[in-house]
């Protein structure tokens, strides 16, 4: 009988699958699989960012809380990478990440992975490129959303 | 004049007490059986009291039942407290009267009567002391409350009949009347005699007692009477099985604002506001404009409010801060037992148990605190 | 004390039964439309005036038959000659207030609460950060600081608005810009036609910081999310959280710490605030729905 390992789950993720096998081994050593029910928080604003997540299935919401309730910025789902506050000091979450549908995610211990990046700069570079790509994609889509296109856009 | 004495028979002493207080201009408020509950209403004498009645209370349960046929004070607190009279559920603060270019302010309101309360338990007197801190002793006293308090006369009763929801002993507020009373009474009911032990709390209490002594048979209190009192108090304390540690509760709640128990209690709580309306220390109020039909006059009417309503935490033009039951229940309990200390240097709970009895969902604050404290050395 | 039976038995009417809940009447002497949904009213007393407010304090404004709401003071009578309130029409009472014309009479109670202690900032740099309608309560602070410019170190005023059209006090901002040795910067979240200024979140005006982080007193008002983000940025930059003064908003209803509505944890925001240090506010604002 074949046992599915965390390494197998990582290899299934589009955001990581073409990394060298040795890189996936390194990440697998810091990762675990976890199930989250709706209402759980993957991240809480201004608390320690000592993990990040790859969503296998389900849906989470990026939010900021306001006095009259949570302000929802974006939802993230299957295959998406959640969290980069662990990359930069002071390693504090900027937003809340709330689970809004039953979610299975790979949870990666960031201190563990940072140590491996520091020890192996080439691995670190390859990983940073993945994150830079994700960050750039999110920034670009966020900027386009700021245009309020369906509202007619903000022509100057 | 002795500081304490024993009057008998008890019913005649109560009759004369009510008469004496009435002559002094007081509207006398006391326990009365109505609609299957012991309520606080104007009384005329001993026969107005729930003579021969007692009560059973449990979470979400209140029943009156027959007791010794002579007893006058053989029951615990009912749904109402002196709060009902000292800070009325609804009162007009002032009225705006339309003029050609604006409005004038009409502040003339009929004055409330001067109240004398008979049969007040130690927990009730502690609650009045707590409301004093909120409504009278701050930088902006509520003039209606301050006036009512200055004039109110309290006849306390040492409690010999706790119910299952009581926990005043652990809160340090009872069962003995020790402060805030003008007179304290202990009902001494034996096979042979029915007497009232009177103790003086204030000079005006002493004056009323002196007048009673001219109309009712009395004798000085003896060591035996005080031994009987102590026996009653000891028995009362032993019967109280619920408990809450007011100092420990303060920390355990504030340190557990995200405890899963808040979700659990929210699934049971109906947000019905009952607990806040029966609570003798709750003070939240709201003011609304009530306009006359012709639009010429608008009364500014203050009414009791509750932190369980959606409007309580509403931000103007936005939504409510506490939009769900979890946050509203958490506000009620953390305020009552924790942040009240920060604000008024005392717990907001006196252990009267009303919020437990009158909760339709049988939520018990002593159990909720215990559940949150579990494993945390409460 | 003997009881005065006679006095007790009389049920005489009581004057000023409402006590601190009874307003003083003020007349609207001018009305200035600031933006599409906000108006500045200048008020002069009809009855005895309220005490002089300090920057950051608020009053309770009543309009006949509608209701009463807390509005921060945006101009102190001792400086401006009239009591100024900038009101954004977002609810029934605020819309009714915004619709008032000169000659109308309102009720005023106050001033209430703890404001910004501008004099305590003397000798230090001053950073004023305002978002949206949050500029209204900060205007008296700016007035004080600019009036006594020589008492402070570096002075910066940073203003954020949703759109250029929602920017308050545009004429005054131009005046502030003309004061020598005062840094004034404005940004909007979304530009509209004709806007040539900054577009971006207000935190972009904090980098580079126009004052010395470790020597600054900060006066901050805006939406709560903005307060959190800005305060944390400043603390990360080295500003003492005891010297970041933020203005909180909760349901101030009686304004005299008796109605219970404005509680935020242990605070009655109406009396313990609205201005508190970030040291005090930070942990309270971190709790959702409290």
Task: Write out key terms for the chains shown.
heterotrimer, B: 378 residues, alpha+beta, four-stranded antiparallel β-sheet, 14 strands, globular, C: 290 residues, alpha/beta, seven-stranded mixed β-sheet, six-stranded antiparallel β-sheet, 15 strands, 22% helix, 29% strand
Secondary structure layout plus pairing:
The complex is a heterotrimer of chains A (156), B (378) and C (290).
Chain A (H helix, E strand, L loop, with lengths): L5 H7 L8 H8 L2 E6 L4 E3 L7 E16 L2 E9 L3 E2 L13 E14 H10 L1 H26 L10
Antiparallel strand pairs in A: 1-6, 2-6, 3-4, 3-5, 3-6
Helix pairs in contact in A: 1-2, 3-4
Chain B lengths: L3 E5 L1 H14 L2 E9 L2 E6 L10 E6 L2 E6 L16 H4 L3 E9 L4 E4 L7 E7 L1 H14 L7 H9 L1 E5 L10 H4 L11 E7 L4 E7 L2 H13 L1 E4 L2 H17 L6 H9 L6 H8 L5 H5 L6 E7 L5 E8 L20 H20 L9 H4 L7 H9 L5
Parallel strand pairs in B: 2-8, 8-9, 9-10
Antiparallel strand pairs in B: 1-11, 1-12, 2-3, 4-5, 6-7, 6-14, 10-11, 13-14
Chain C lengths: L4 H5 L14 E12 L2 E8 L12 E6 L3 E6 L4 H4 L2 E6 L3 H7 L6 E8 L12 E7 L3 H13 L7 E7 L8 H9 L4 E6 L9 E2 L16 E6 L2 H14 L6 E4 L15 E2 L2 E2 H4 L2 E3 H8 L5
Parallel strand pairs in C: 7-8, 7-11, 8-9, 9-10, 11-12
Antiparallel strand pairs in C: 1-2, 1-6, 2-5, 3-4, 3-6, 12-15, 13-14
How is this structure best summarized?
Chain A is of the alpha+beta class and 156 residues long.
Describe the structure.
The complex is a heterotrimer of chains A (156), B (378) and C (290). Chain A is α+β, with helices and mostly antiparallel strands and 156 residues long. Chain A contains 4 helices and 6 strands, in the order ααββββββαα. In chain A, strands 1, 2, 3, 4, 5 and 6 form a 6-stranded antiparallel β-sheet that branches. In chain B, 34% of the residues lie in helices and 24% in strands. The longest helix of chain B is centred in the last third of the chain and has 20 residues, at 325-344. Helices cover 22% and strands 29% of the residues of chain C. Chain C is built from 8 helices and 15 strands. At the B-C interface, β6, β7, α4, α6 and β13 of B face α1 and β4 of C.
């Amino acid at each position: 009988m074949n046992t599915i390992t965390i390494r197998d789950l990582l290899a299934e993720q589009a955001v990581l699958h073409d990394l060298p096998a040795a890189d996936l081994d390194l990440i697998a050593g810091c990762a675990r699989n976890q199930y989250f029910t709706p209402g759980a928080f993957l991240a809480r604003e201004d608390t320690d960012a000592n993990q990040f997540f790859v969503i296998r299935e389900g849906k989470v919401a990026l939010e900021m809380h306001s006095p009259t309730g949570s302000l929802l910025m974006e939802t993230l789902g299957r295959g998406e990478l959640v969290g980069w506050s662990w990359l930069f000091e002071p390693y504090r979450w900027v937003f809340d990440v709330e689970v809004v549908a039953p979610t299975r995610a790979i949870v990666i211990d960031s201190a563990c992975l940072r140590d491996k990046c520091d020890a192996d700069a080439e691995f670190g570079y390859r990983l940073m490129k993945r994150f830079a790509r994700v960050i750039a994609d999110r920034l670009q889509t966020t900027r386009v959303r700021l245009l309020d296109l369906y509202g007619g856009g903000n022509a100057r | 004049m002795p500081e304490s004495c024993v009057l008998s028979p008890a019913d005649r002493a109560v009759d004369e007490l009510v008469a004496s207080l009435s002559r002094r201009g007081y509207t006398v408020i006391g326990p009365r059986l109505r609609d299957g509950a012991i309520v606080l209403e104007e009384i005329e004498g001993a026969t107005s009291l729930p003579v021969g009645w007692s009560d059973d209370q449990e979470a979400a349960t209140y029943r009156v039942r027959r007791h010794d046929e002579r007893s006058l004070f053989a029951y615990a607190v009912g749904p109402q407290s002196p709060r009902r009279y000292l800070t009325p559920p609804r009162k007009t603060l002032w009225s705006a009267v339309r003029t050609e270019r604006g409005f004038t302010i009409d502040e003339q309101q009929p004055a409330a009567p001067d109240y004398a309360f008979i049969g007040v338990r130690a927990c009730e007197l502690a609650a009045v002391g707590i409301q004093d801190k909120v409504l009278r002793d701050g930088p902006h006293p509520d003039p209606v409350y301050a006036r009512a308090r200055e004039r109110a006369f309290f006849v306390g009763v040492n409690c010999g009949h706790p119910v299952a929801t009581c926990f005043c002993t652990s809160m340090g507020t009872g069962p003995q009347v020790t402060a805030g009373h003008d007179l304290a009474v202990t009902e001494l009911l034996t096979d042979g005699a029915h007497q009232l032990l009177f103790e003086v709390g204030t000079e005006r209490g002493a004056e009323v007692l002196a007048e009673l002594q001219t109309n009712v048979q009395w004798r000085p209190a003896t060591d035996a009477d005080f031994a009987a009192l102590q026996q009653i108090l000891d028995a009362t304390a032993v019967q109280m099985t619920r408990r809450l540690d007011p100092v420990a509760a303060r920390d355990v709640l504030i340190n557990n604002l995200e405890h899963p128990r808040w979700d659990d209690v929210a699934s049971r709580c109906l947000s019905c506001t009952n607990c806040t309306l029966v609570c003798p220390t709750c003070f939240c109020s709201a003011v609304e404009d009530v306009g006359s039909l012709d639009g010429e006059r608008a009364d500014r009417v203050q009414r009791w409010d509750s932190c369980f309503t959606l409007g309580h935490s509403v931000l103007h033009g936005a939504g409510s801060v506490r939009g769900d039951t979890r946050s509203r229940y958490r506000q009620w309990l953390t305020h009552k037992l924790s942040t009240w200390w920060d604000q008024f240097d005392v717990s907001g709970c006196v252990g009267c148990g009303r919020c437990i009895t009158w909760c339709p969902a049988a939520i018990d604050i002593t159990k909720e605190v215990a559940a949150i404290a579990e494993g945390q050395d409460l | 004390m003997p009881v005065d039976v006679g006095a007790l038995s009389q049920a005489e009417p009581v004057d000023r039964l409402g006590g601190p809940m009874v307003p003083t009447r003020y007349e609207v002497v001018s009305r200035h439309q600031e933006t599409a949904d906000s108006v500045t009213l200048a008020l002069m007393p009809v009855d005895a005036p309220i005490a002089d407010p300090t920057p950051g304090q608020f009053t309770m404004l009543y309009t006949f038959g509608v209701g009463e709401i807390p509005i921060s003071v945006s101009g102190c009578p001792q400086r401006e000659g009239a009591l100024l309130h900038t009101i954004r029409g977002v609810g029934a009472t605020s819309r009714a207030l915004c619709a008032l014309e000169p000659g109308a009479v309102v009720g005023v109670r106050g001033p209430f609460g703890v404001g910004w202690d501008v004099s305590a900032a003397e000798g230090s740099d001053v950073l004023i950060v305002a978002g949206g309608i949050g500029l209204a309560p900060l205007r008296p602070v700016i007035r004080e600081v600019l009036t006594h410019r020589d008492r402070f170190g570096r002075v910066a005023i940073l203003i954020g608005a949703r759109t250029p059209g929602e920017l308050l006090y545009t004429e005054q901002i131009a005046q502030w810009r003309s004061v020598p040795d005062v840094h004034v910067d404005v940004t909007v979240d979304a530009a509209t036609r004709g806007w040539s200024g900054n577009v971006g979140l207000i935190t972009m005006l904090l980098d580079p910081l126009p004052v010395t982080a470790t020597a600054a007193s900060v006066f901050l008002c805006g939406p709560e999310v903005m307060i959190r983000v800005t305060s944390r940025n400043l603390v990360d930059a080295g500003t003492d959280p005891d010297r970041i003064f933020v203005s909180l908003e909760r349901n101030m209803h009686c304004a005299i710490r008796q109605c219970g509505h404005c509680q935020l944890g242990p605070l009655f925001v109406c009396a313990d605030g609205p201005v508190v240090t970030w040291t005090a506010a930070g942990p309270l604002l971190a709790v959702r729905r409290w």
